[in-house]
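Batch queue: ligand-bound targets. Current item pairs a single chain with S-adenosylmethionine. No template structures supplied; prediction is de novo from sequence plus SMILES. Inputs echoed for audit trail.
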Amino acid sequence: MAKNKKSPVENYHDRVAGIYDTIYDNNPYWEAVFEITWRHVLKFLPKDLSTRCLDVGCGTGRWGMKLFKTGYPTDFLDISWKMLDQVGKKIDKLAPDKRPELIHTGIDDLSMIQNETYDFIIGQGDPLNCADRPEKALKELCRVLRPGGIILMSVDNRHAGIFHYFRAGDVAGLAAFIKNGKTKWVTDDPSEQYDITMFTADNIRALCEQRGLKLLSLIGKTVLPLRRFQEMLVDRNQRLELLKLEESLNKVEAMLGNAAHLEFVAQKPAKD
Ligand SMILES: C[S@@+](CC[C@H](N)C(=O)[O-])C[C@H]1O[C@@H](n2cnc3c(N)ncnc32)[C@H](O)[C@@H]1O
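Prediction returned. Tokens below.
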């Protein structure tokens, strides 16, 4: 399904699509984050393998491919065609007879998808942050979710963006950012920067309430300084211990502010 005009966010992700997976390879911090994420996903993933899944902002398909390989009928959606192309290549290799839908659109316009199509929607990374209209995006995601269905998304945490304004000595910018979460995704090439909105835990709660979603879980990823001290994750036993500690703290309100990402799981009410 085609989209007409390329946005800066699409341009950027088109450019990095071919090397995207390698950015996360052999990195103890990201491996830990992926492990925590998958365990969190598994708590909410229905056991029924006919559950219809959608990976939004799928990138190269890290999460949707896991669902697809597990046996769930899974479709993939991204604003970047080149990211979807990477997913298509993986599907061709793994299961050339299967044709999941590769949907090329922004999450704030899902008009090509019928109401109540999916039971489980996953959106990892930051598609909600990058959406031009995050409230509209969540509304659309709820529309295509079946009653009783689950939405699981991770977002960039506003508190993690504060340091950037201190580094830049930009107090006026900091004040505005704390208020509305609007900022730019900083890339090496300034012409590639694009607008994003970063969220607080309270924003997530308010957004879910606004859409009538029941918030089932809200965690920080990661609330311990695992990125800064990633060499501590190399030893297997120490890593297991640190992940256990992380998971014992990642729902604690006072710890959420430490995390680069927040991840929420919410359920659409079942029909009576
Ligand atoms: C940080 S990457 C995450 C990719 C993948 N979910 C993962 O965890 O590896 C964010 C992805 O979201 C996509 N994206 C950004 N804004 C979007 C939007 N408004 N609608 C749909 N996809 C979007 C990007 O093209 C990119 O592939």
